[in-house]
């Protein structure tokens, strides 16, 4: 390493999107390498609204690998972090920065330590796939720092070892995680199906019910399912392979009715195998605390509202999908459907009167404008959706949703070259 006497810090900052599965990954055939028992397909969400930003830095002055998540130092001792760090280091190449007088050879990387600072612009572990964006960003940014000469497909196989769903965040648009057959996991990688421009009519609304950390982690939940559910094998062997083929076709052809039917069915089946687990996992209606009883009911109400509306229109307007946390993801066929969906959601789930509309609907606020809603009083004036023909008046559940995020399919990881966006101080390599 040249110029060892001179202090230097070399940094890279990247931004990586999160993703939501429309055909779910649930169950592993190898816990350490994180190899799935079925293929899965996801849509990448626009990083403008949901993403992780990560800065990685290297300096001869660092005496250990360290990481800060949302400003708080966390341990990198866990096997998943260690696996990612080891795999990236093993692929590092020479790096030279003439301006700064830095020269790092391939072998130097084994002895140099890194600092990592990561920030999510959305709640961590609330079922919004923060670990997906987080590990994807860690691997992507370290690969750039260490000049790893591999494409995003190969990098996805490393991100996968941090968290399965993370491999799908290495690409934009619609992405398939091919489960692979090899024991070493070398063919268990993400492949891009179509980019984010292919089906840019879609609008995605996320109802964030709770920003608490989820109770049952995906990792232990899916382990229990594989060990105890008799339905999971049928799902992985018989159901998902056929759905994957149909889903790929639906995405290629922008066939929304088929896409919506497959997305809703697959979400419902994922929750069915969770219920078929011993002890059962209730991501959608955990009944152990009062707050969660409400949470579950809200989600069922959202499903009911979407199903009723889709049925009354004669063709699906919106698809719903729920991950391992209490949030609903609603994918609308176009802006018009998203506008009508948001009106329905706001009718049933108005904010508390002291809530600012600006913080109740975040992300792409133009949908709010299209819905003719500028003010809380416009929400209160919304008429009941016409498909509600029950004799009992339409129910309202004020204040039961934390907020809504309006977003769309988005791009894959990018490097942020503007140093002002770095999360680490360029002189000290410590959080800013
Ligand atoms: C329900 O990727 O969080 O979101 O691989 O154990 O880290 P680990 O699990 P994780 O599981 C995600 C499960 C899911 C479905 C999906 O994203 O496909």
UniProtKB/TrEMBL annotation:
Coiled coil: none annotated. Its main location: other. Residues 204-415 form the Mvd1 C-terminal domain. It is an enzyme of class 4 (lyase). It catalyses: (R)-5-diphosphomevalonate + ATP = isopentenyl diphosphate + ADP + phosphate + CO2. Its EC number is 4.1.1.33. One of its GO terms (biological process) is sterol biosynthetic process. SUPFAM superfamilies: GHMP Kinase, C-terminal domain, Ribosomal protein S5 domain 2-like. GO terms for cellular component: cytosol; peroxisome. Performs the first committed step in the biosynthesis of isoprene-containing compounds such as sterols and terpenoids. Belongs to the diphosphomevalonate decarboxylase family. This is Diphosphomevalonate decarboxylase. It comes from Capsicum baccatum (Peruvian pepper).
């Amino acid at each position: 390493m040249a110029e060892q006497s001179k202090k230097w810090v070399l940094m890279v900052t990247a931004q990586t999107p999160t993703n939501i599965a429309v055909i779910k990954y649930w169950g592993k055939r190898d816990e350490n390498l994180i190899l799935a028992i079925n293929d899965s397909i996801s849509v990448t969400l626009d990083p403008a609204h949901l993403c992780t930003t990560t800065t990685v830095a290297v300096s001869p002055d660092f005496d250990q690998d360290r990481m800060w998540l949302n400003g708080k130092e966390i341990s990198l001792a866990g096997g998943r972090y260690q696996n990612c760090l080891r795999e990236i280091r093993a692929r590092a190449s020479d790096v030279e920065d003439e301006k700064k007088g830095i020269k790092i050879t391939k072998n130097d990387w084994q002895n140099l330590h890194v600092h990592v600072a990561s920030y999510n612009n959305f709640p961590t572990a609330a079922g919004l796939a923060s670990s997906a964006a987080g590990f994807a960003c860690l691997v992507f940014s370290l690969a750039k720092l260490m000049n790893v000469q591999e494409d995003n497909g190969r990098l996805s196989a490393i991100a996968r070892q941090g968290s399965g769903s993370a491999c799908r965040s290495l690409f934009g648009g619609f992405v398939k995680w091919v489960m692979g057959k090899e024991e070493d996991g070398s063919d268990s990688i993400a492949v891009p199906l179509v980019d984010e421009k292919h089906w840019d009519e879609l609008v995605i609304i996320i109802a964030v019910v709770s920003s608490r950390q989820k109770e049952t982690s995906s990792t232990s939940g899916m382990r229990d399912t594989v060990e105890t559910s008799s339905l999971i094998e049928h799902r992985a062997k018989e159901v998902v392979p056929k759905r994957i083929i149909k889903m790929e076709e639906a995405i290629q052809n922008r066939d929304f009715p088929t896409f919506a039917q497959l997305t809703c069915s697959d979400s419902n089946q994922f929750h069915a195998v969770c219920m078929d687990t011993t002890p059962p996992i209730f991501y959608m209606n955990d009944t152990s605390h009062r707050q969660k009883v409400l949470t579950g009911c809200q989600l069922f109400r959202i499903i009911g509202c979407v199903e009723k509306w889709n049925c009354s229109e004669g063709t699906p307007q919106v698809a719903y999908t729920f991950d391992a946390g209490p949030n609903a993801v609603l994918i609308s066929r176009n802006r018009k459907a998203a506008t009508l969906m948001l009106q329905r959601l706001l009718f049933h789930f108005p904010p508390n009167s002291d809530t600012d509309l600006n913080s109740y609907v975040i992300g792409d606020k133009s949908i709010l404008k299209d819905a003719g809603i500028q003010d809380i009083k416009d929400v209160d004036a919304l008429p009941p959706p016409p498909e509600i023909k029950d004799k009992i008046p339409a129910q309202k559940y004020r204040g039961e949703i934390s907020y809504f995020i309006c977003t769309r399919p988005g791009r894959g990881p990018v490097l942020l070259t503007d140093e002002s966006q770095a999360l680490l101080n360029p002189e000290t390599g410590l959080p800013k």
